[in-house]
Design a protein that fits this description.
The protein has ten helices and ten strands. By secondary structure, it is α/β, with parallel strands linked by helices. It folds into two domains: 66 residues, no CATH class; 191 residues, Rossmann fold (3-Layer(aba) Sandwich), CATH 3.40.50. The protein has a seven-stranded mixed sheet. The protein has a three-stranded antiparallel sheet with strand order 3-5-4.
């Protein structure tokens, strides 16, 4: 006897993602099933659609709907100095290593609207290293990159960001790093001068440079094992010898084929150093 057929909704989601890949070239087929299903369900409600098949018909014939759909699938949850203990660990364990380099390249993969990239720029300024650094912030979503390039964030968030900054080991007044204008906080131009924001898709694109540090925090949790393996290979190949990899708290290099090729610098904050 043949095995039981897959539930209809699973079939519809598979066809939707396959159709998007073939027609638009965007590959969401290896995102974690629970995450992709949850986001599709939310988008169906937002678009007032009752079935995934109806969504497939709309996104394949309506480019604006497809653009909205992509924005709903890409993860854009971030903040300045998110998980401040990570930045404190970076100051303590990574900065001494970076001081030994004449020039430093840092890649923030899946940077969303850029807050974590600017957080790193602030940290590097305070440690006296920013002038010899180049930071690359990349994301698959062009719209969030436009926000990142502007470096303007809601003024109402600055109080919370100030507390996170202080917990991260910040040594100045956080208000020094932005100018308030109406309801916006505009980050200082001095933070932007060594940052490059560009589109890069971890699902389909390859390496574009060699880096001393790669940060990809709270992105891999949305990928299935196949895609996580691809991204880990990409990061390993993109790191220079003794380069640093920073992941999110729920992420790890354990059980990857490269686990023995890294040294743990801060197990709790998921900072690793490539040693092989």
């Amino acid at each position: 006897m043949s095995s039981d057929p897959a539930p209809l909704e699973e079939v519809e989601i598979h066809l939707l993602l396959e159709g998007i890949y073939r027609y638009y070239g965007y590959d969401f087929r290896n995102y974690a099933p629970s995450s992709i299903k949850r986001r599709i369900t939310g988008f169906l409600t937002a678009e007032n659609l009752s079935t995934v098949s109806a969504l497939q018909n709309r996104v394949l014939h309506d480019r604006e709907c497809f653009d909205r759909f992509v924005r709903s699938l890409t993860v854009n949850v971030t903040s300045m100095f998110r998980d401040p203990s990570f930045y404190l660990a970076f100051r303590n364990h990574v900065i001494p290593i970076l001081r030994t380099y004449p020039f430093i390249r840092i890649w923030h993969a899946g940077c969303s609207t850029g807050e974590e990239v600017y957080s790193m720029a602030i940290l590097l300024q305070e440690e006296g290293l920013y002038d010899r650094c180049r930071l690359y912030g990349t994301d698959a979503n062009e719209q969030v990159l436009q926000t990142a390039k502007q470096g303007m964030y809601p003024l109402r968030m600055m109080k919370a960001y100030t507390q996170l900054y202080l917990k991260s080991g910040g040594v100045r007044s956080f208000s020094e790093y932005y100018t308030a204008a109406y309801e916006e906080a505009i980050l200082r131009a001095s933070l932007k001068r060594n940052i490059v924001f560009a589109q890069h898709n971890l699902v389909t694109d390859g390496s574009f440079n060699e880096f001393n540090v790669i940060c990809c925090r709270n992105v891999l949790i949305y990928f299935n094992q196949t895609l996580q393996t691809r991204v880990h290979n990409l990061f390993y190949d993109s790191l220079c010898s003794f380069g640093i990899l920073g992941l999110g708290r729920q992420e790890s290099i354990k059980f990857t084929e490269h686990s023995a090729r890294y040294q743990e610098l801060s197990p709790l904050d998921k900072l690793y150093r490539k040693v092989d």
